[in-house]
Amino acid sequence: MDYAIIAAGQGSRIGGENAGLPKPLVTLAGEAMIERLIGILDSTDAGSICVITNPFMPEVAARVRSLSVKADMRVIEKSTTGSMESFHALSGMLNRERPFCLLTVDSIFRPEEFARFISDFEADSQADGYMAVTTYVDDEKPLYIASTPEGDITGFLDNPVPGVRYVSGGIYALRPQALDVLADCAASGVSRMRDFQRALVASGMRLKAWQFSKIIDVDRPGDIAEAESFLASTT
Which pLDDT tens digit goes with each residue over 181-191? Predict the structure, then answer.
């Protein structure tokens, strides 16, 4: 399994003792978020870990390059307008013969749940992708996930509708053909990740919803304490 990390955020809204730090270097229980995430991925026998960082924050790329990991580490420094453009930039570093998992550096989850998510995806020869979902809403503009009782995703919705329980957790495990859909989206001017996800469904790819207990998006001052409390609690 290869991994791609979007780590280009500025972290300007977090404040507190992390004020002024680039978001990937914001500390969680004393550890920078980018270091914590790379450590989790490296523990899953990763083939490669590809990271995109903001060139205006060179200390992030320097920190990533300083880490000692088993996986093949690749870093690109590029300014982008959003997560889908960042993903498109990362796609050139991915092996098109292997599945991959895309994450953002500020998504906080339990490592043991993530390990099961990856294991289940790798064992499922019928699915083209697994999307992390949760019933915990922690986003200003959540993406709602419509799915069948068996967990097959049927739609990505901007607004809640009756019967829809899940929101996207921002973690995507996908087969290589998803990169062709990404290239088509980029060529046609699609710029939002949620529209890329809709394109995956429209292309006929079979996507499964995999429920995490909680995924916290670290964006605001109170998110650090909440994330630390969540990770310290028992499952």
Answer: 999 999 999 99
